[in-house]
Amino acid sequence: MSIEYHDCTFLNGVNASFISELFAKYLENHNAVDSSWHQYFDLLNDDIKVANMDLRGPSFATRTTKIITAVDSSAPEKALEKATVVNPQWTDSALACSRDSLRASMIIQAYRVNGHLKANLDPLGLKNSSLHPELNPETYGFTKNDWNRPIFINNMLGLERTTLSEIMNVLESIYCRSIGVEFMHIQDLAQKTWILERIEQQGCKINLTPIEKKIILQRITAAESFEKFLAIKCVGVKRFGLDGGETLIPALEQILIRSSELGLEEAVLGMPHRGRLSVLCNFMNKPFRAIVAEFLGKLEYTDQIGDVKYHMGFSSNREFNGINVHLTLNSNPSHLESVNSVVLGRVRAKQEQKKDKLRQKVMGILMHGDAAFVGQGVAAETLELSGLHGYRTGGTIHIIINNQIGFTTDPQHARSSVYPTDMGKMVLAPIFHVNADDPEATVHVARIAAEFRHKFNADVIINIICYRRFGHNETDEPRFTQPLMYEKICHHQTTREIYVKQLIDEGTLDKQEVDKILDEEKSHLMQEFEYGLTYKPGKADWLEGAWSNLKSTSGEGARGNTGVDIKELQRIGAKLCDVPKGFNLHSKLNRFIASRKKAIASGEGIDWATSEALSFATLLTDGFMVRLSGQDSQRGTFSQRHSVYIDQKTEKSYIPLNNIQEKQANYEVINSPLSEAGVLCFEYGYSQAEPNTLICWEAQFGDFANVAQVVMDQFITSGEKKWLRMSGLVLLLPHGYEGQGPEHSSARIERFLQLCGEDNMQVVNCTTPANYFHVLRRQMHRDFRKPLIIFTPKSILRHKMAVSKLEEISGSTTFHRVLFDDRLMCEDKEVKRVIICSGKVYYDLYEESIKRNINNIVFLRLEQMYPFPREVILHKLSRFPQAEIIWCQEEPANMGPWTFVDRRIEDVLIEIDGMCKRPQYIGRPISAAPATGSAVRHTNEQAALVNKALTLNLKKFNNV
């Protein structure tokens, strides 16, 4: 018989670890097990081999013992049958006893897996309570007559010899009361064992002191009173109240209490609309007077455009049992789940700032609505990041505020799974379901979750099953769509009322004490409300801590000091070309490095990748960290970067940028998962917390950014104005028409330009490696931070003309917002045409003009499209008042920069001669798709637009 080892599996329905433990005891001492097992094990002993290994069974502590399991899954049953035939003295009662033990083991295992399906989780009692067959003893052959017969279960559930009746009572009390646990899907034995011991050893015993119970009541009272007070004072105003989910407040506090005891110093939170105002006031300690002022229409800070109340964030310090914890609730837009990985990025940045390598000092807490968590793909992307090297934060505590409804959508129409939390199984996270009307159970689960996260640095999910006392918002009528649910809610006691009755009945508090707690809360709210009527918003305190050396600014200038001493560039460049001795480099990389070394030594032919490497390297030696993440960013999508060398024999890695000098900042380059929205949210969150790191996200192709449009629209471009939160995030978006089809041509320049306003970001389309070098360094060498969108090239990564000299990035050189190409110039008065363009099309135009020997056309390259460099354009065009002005682009007329630049160039032209004069458009015609999928058609289109730009009689041209 072949032998195999299993992790607590079933052999034909029999618990292998249960048999194994009994057999191990039997081998040590026959008398250590019940005599009814002796002949069974005597027969098995001839067929089953014994091996030394770690015991694998969730019922037992981790220790080394002898364990056996057989591939022949029917062996135990066959052995029992064989025993009765070979040995008649094996009595029917002994056989029944053995079978009872095996069956009892199966029931215990079934409750561990599916007990949550029978738990009392729904406060409204609307759930179908039909018994799951695996939780029915009759499924395993027990009858009503078997409930009181002694059964040997070998210390499972802490019981040695017991009855089915007692087993069922214990299982029901552990797995089927107000808490339901899902953990048997976890593959990590230590995690699974820890949860099982934590659950089964304590069982249903939630030991809270009278003081702890009183505190829970105080927090629930505060939460309920807050909502009722606003409902009276602000009738008909949306607040997305927490009514029905008030236990969230004591649950959050318990997480912080326990986590702070375990070393937590800071927590970053993200949450949806529902309950945010209560969390701000009752957990974050935001003054109620400030919230009242917001209801009256006053912005918290006078220099922000603001957002609705239930989108706003807040920071504060709270003390838990003498331990201070800094709390940050992240602002977020209506795409609620997008904030998930924003929070995690922020957590990661703060962990790096605190040098928190164990990831115990800073933690993320994410709250979700049930419909949004399971419905929004970014939630799954966030979970996927949890265990990845470049994104892990040591585990996140996820709390589902389970309303059992979406806006008006029932769960059966909103998801295909039993619970919204089932998605958490993709990362093998433990899941705790709890009835929100049992505050003590909710607090108990919160404590377990905090301890699990601390011990295993892994995600954990709490599903607080509650209800929404009113509609989606307070002005909504939920009975239109859920009449039966809301008929139930209408007559359902509040959580506070239920808990008050419990505390009075058990003698923990009397009615007078309960009333005092309520009266004190009402008095506090009324006093704060009066203060709120005259509350004056304070000065913004958003540039503190790591941001204290920065300031708010606007305008098209501020070049920054970006040039570097040429000797320093050569020194750094030489280090970038070093390879460790004995490192087995790919043969093509030898040529790559040799070419780079030659360019740096000669000061000529600096290509795009070398320029980028030098910009990163000089920032690192300046003390700024650099973080670059994206799909295949280590090598680069176009095999241009090679930030990480891989030994061809060992696959060990070497990163030249981390080996420039002894004292330098760290360079982190990460191959991200195939995620745009989740990863870009993460990097944005990182940039919210860390102004001294160049943080870059790179799309594999620029059009991939489409999937993350929410992040751009609602966070990156508007976050500073809405929430007073700067970001210096850099987006690298490959863009250019090379005949690669509609989805690999355009980074949708027009969309970003449409989002530009109030100096909210920078949009550039560099055509030289030198300008790329400067714009990256400029990002850090200024006293403010703005998002930077860079449309990076593809074909001109290796274009023979797209190279720079070392002297163009050394000394006092800086970024040029407009490049004036006068290599073909005649006298100013002889210039017939000025072609303004941006990006790769310049090289097509220039090369063709050389072929045709054209010398009366001037090219202006718009390197920075926003903020629009009006003064520079005005200065250049003023030299050629007689010239025709055209705008040339590769993109269709309804795409690209045209619809953004046309009016701005027109304004410049009007100022020059006082007459209404528009630039003429040359490019592809209006199109539904960004580009053709035919390489031949692309070539013809490109040749045609270049020809028109260089030869067309513009006087007869009809404007697009």
Automatic annotation (TrEMBL):
GO cellular component: cytosol; oxoglutarate dehydrogenase complex
Cofactor: thiamine diphosphate
Listed Gene3D superfamilies: 3.40.50.12470, 3.40.50.970, Multifunctional 2-oxoglutarate metabolism enzyme, C-terminal domain (3.40.50.11610), TPP helical domain (1.10.287.1150)
SUPFAM superfamilies according to UniProt: Thiamin diphosphate-binding fold (THDP-binding) (SSF52518)
Family according to the record: Belongs to the alpha-ketoglutarate dehydrogenase family.
GO biological processes: glycolytic process; tricarboxylic acid cycle
EC number: 1.2.4.2
Keyword Oxidoreductase part of the UniProt annotation: yes
Biological role: E1 component of the 2-oxoglutarate dehydrogenase (OGDH) complex which catalyzes the decarboxylation of 2-oxoglutarate, the first step in the conversion of 2-oxoglutarate to succinyl-CoA and CO(2).
Recorded GO MF terms: oxoglutarate dehydrogenase (succinyl-transferring) activity; thiamine pyrophosphate binding
UniProt keyword list: Glycolysis, Oxidoreductase, Thiamine pyrophosphate
Pfam families xrefs: 2-oxogl_dehyd_N, E1_dh, OxoGdeHyase_C, Transket_pyr
Superkingdom as given in the UniProt entry: Bacteria
Protein name: 2-oxoglutarate dehydrogenase E1 component
Class of this enzyme: oxidoreductase
Keyword Transport: no
Subunit structure of this chain's protein: Homodimer. Part of the 2-oxoglutarate dehydrogenase (OGDH) complex composed of E1 (2-oxoglutarate dehydrogenase), E2 (dihydrolipoamide succinyltransferase) and E3 (dihydrolipoamide dehydrogenase); the complex contains multiple copies of the three enzymatic components (E1, E2 and E3).
Span of domain Transketolase-like pyrimidine-binding: 606-799
CDD domains: TPP_E1_OGDC_like (cd02016)
Organism: Candidatus Endolissoclinum faulkneri L5
